[in-house]
Fold S-adenosylmethionine decarboxylase proenzyme.
Amino acid sequence: MKVAVGVHIIADLYGVDARLISSSEAISPIMENAIQEGHLTKISSEYYQFRPMGASGIALLAESHLSFHTWPEYGLVTLDIYTCGDRSNADRAFDYIIKVLKPTSVDYRKMERGSQIKEDVRITDPQMML
């Protein structure tokens, strides 16, 4: 039997209100709340403000990461949510972001990561991990 180690959501959100995505000050609380809504464990986060507008950010999660880039002039947010463990956590975080940003359209892919790993193949000898 094969198992996947995580789920990866890659999304383009179109038609987002520029006021919500023009500054890191505006969008960072949305992303921080998405982490909480997704029951994810934040290790750290970093946000960057572009001039005159636009923002990027990344949150390092115990489960993996959440990142985004905004283009307010196009009403566009590109989003990346990758989590290991409970797959519904990524969905909850994604759903929250969609609910708050209210894009007019969304193009997304949801991939299982590491899906070719066989369940019965594991390194059990600690010396092999060095």
Summary: The chain has three helices and eight strands. The chain has one domain: 2-129. Residues 2-129 form a domain with the S-adenosylmethionine decarboxylase fold (CATH 3.60.90.10). Residues 33 and 96 are 8 Å apart (CA to CA).
